[in-house]
Specification:
By secondary structure, the chain is mainly beta. The protein folds into 2 domains: about 5-10 and about 270-380, Immunoglobulin-like, CATH 2.60.40; about 25-250, no CATH class. The protein is built from 2 helices and 24 strands. It has helices at about 265, 275-290, and strands spanning about 5, 25-30, 45-50, 55-60, 65-75, 85, 90-95, 100, 120-125, 135-145, 160-170, 180-185, 190-195, 205-210, 210-215, 215-220, 225-235, 240-250, 300, 310-315, 325-330, 340-345, 355-365, 375-380. The strands form 5 sheets. The protein has a 7-stranded mixed beta sheet, with no helix packed on it. A hairpin with a 6-residue loop joins β17 and β18 (about 240-250). The chain is globular and about 65 Å long.
């Protein structure tokens, strides 16, 4: 049986279940005095890395025109020196039981915490010593994004900016428990920035290129979370907006990333053909593209190295012959799709990939056609 699902025009179907395999994954924990008594016993495949502070740091790759990211630790980790950057599969931030709180305020702006007396967990936006939480002190940064005129500014500013939003929230341990909020408080008023909850003000978090900021990160349940951020910026040279998905892992009283199955059936056990037919965009496409939320193909863009081409960049699974894909092009969305003019090459950037995957560049000549569309077709045999 064949199921065909298409990428194109900015449509994304993302991972809704556990995806990564443990393999020397760093678990970032607080090194505040007495914090070690709350460290998890992580077991094989995980390494504890105490640090006073870590940022969710974004990096810009000019060659591939993409953002990537992960945690970046302070300079006193691993014997000092410069900060250490980790990819999304390399590290997670651990929030111990001391991060548990109960809502005591009845002010309406704190309603997202739940009813008075309800429990939640929080990474604070101030150093852990100030609240005795023994929780890792986290920030947001764009230290890997050049502030050299690559990106446009915001408003009247001419200083480069990047912009964050939350794209998806997954609790890999308890899929139904996905409440997540990133916020700050000023003069008693919540400044809501990062949430998928439609009931609360949500907007992009604007961050200075090569800059730094802080938010409280708030979770409503225990579990291993994958928060996927969308990071975007506008290039000064072309006026083009570039956008990438950046996943970050947070362990709330849990630290182990559940393992992925090695085949489609193992990765999504118990899924009936009816479920696959109605939800195949999530299950099949996620699996075909390596099982990671940040690995969905990026929007079709003009190739910066060859303006005569359009391109897609995608991470492709290589170890399951029952899942295939084709790059296709057409001059109209209503039909005429073909692969005869599509070129597929290996990307020069093969870093931070899931096991058994490769990053590909799918490109096509723009030609003289007034419109041209490019897509990927994913087929399950």
């Amino acid at each position: 049986m064949r199921w065909l699902f298409l990428f194109g025009g900015g449509l994304f179907w993302l991972c809704g279940t556990n995806c990564l395999q443990a393999g020397n994954i760093r678990v970032l924990v607080s090194n505040t005095t007495n914090a070690s008594q709350y460290n998890p016993a992580v077991g094989p495949g995980y390494v504890l890395l105490p640090t006073p502070h870590a940022d969710l740091n974004v990096v810009w790759n000019a060659a591939t025109q993409t953002f990537s990211g992960g945690f970046r630790t302070d300079s006193d980790v691993n014997g000092g020196g410069g900060g250490v950057q980790f990819g999304p599969e390399d590290a997670l931030a651990y929030l111990p039981s001391t991060g548990q709180r109960q809502r005591t305020s009845s002010a309406s702006q704190y309603d997202f915490q739940g009813a008075t007396g309800e429990t939640y967990w929080i990474f604070p936006s101030s150093p852990t010593a100030s609240n005795n939480a023994f929780s890792l002190y986290l920030g947001f940064s764009g230290y890997g994004v050049p502030n050299d005129g690559t990106f446009t500014g915001s408003g009247a500013s001419t200083t480069g900016r990047i912009r964050w939003t939350v794209h998806s929230v997954e609790n890999l341990t308890t899929p139904a428990a996905t409440a997540f909020y990133g916020y700050s408080v000023s003069a008693g008023t919540v400044n809501m920035q990062l949430t998928l909850d439609p009931a609360y003000p949500n907007r992009e978090m604007v961050l200075l290129a090569n800059g730094h900021s802080h938010l409280n990160l708030f979770f409503k349940a225990v579990g291993m979370y994958r928060i996927t951020f969308r990071v975007r910026g506008t290039l000064v040279a072309t006026g083009e907006e570039v956008s990438s998905l950046v996943p970050v892992y947070f362990g709330v009283e849990a630290w182990q990333i559940p393992a992925e199955g090695s085949t489609f059936a193992e990765a999504y056990p118990g899924k009936s053909l009816t479920e696959i037919a109605s939800n195949g965009q999530t299950y099949l496409v996620n699996y075909a593209f390596g099982g990671e939320a940040d690995q969905a193909p990026i929007l079709p863009t003009q190739d910066s190295s060859d303006p005569a081409k359009l391109r897609l960049i995608a991470v492709i699974r290589t170890n399951d012959a029952s899942v295939t894909w084709n790059g296709e092009v057409a001059t109209s969305l209503v039909g005429g799709w073909n692969s005869s003019d599509v070129t597929v090459t290996d990307s020069p950037n093969q870093e931070n990939l899931p096991p058994n995957t490769v990053r590909k560049i799918i490109s096509v000549d723009r030609g003289s056609d007034p419109k041209k569309f490019i897509r990927l077709a994913v087929i399950k045999n």
